[in-house]
Amino acid sequence: MTQSTEPADAIAARLADVDARIADAARAAGRDPAALTRIVVTKFHPPSLVETLYGLGVRDVGENRQQEFSAKAEEVGPLDGLRWHFIGQAQTNKARAIRRAASAVHSVDRARLADALDASAEPDSAILDVLLQVNLTDDAGRGGIAPSELEPLAAHVAGLPTLRVRGIMAVAPLEQAAAAAFERLSSLAATVRAVVPDADWISAGMTADFTEAIAAGATHLRIGSAITGPRPLHG
Question: Strand pairing partners for 60?
Answer without folding.
Answer: 83
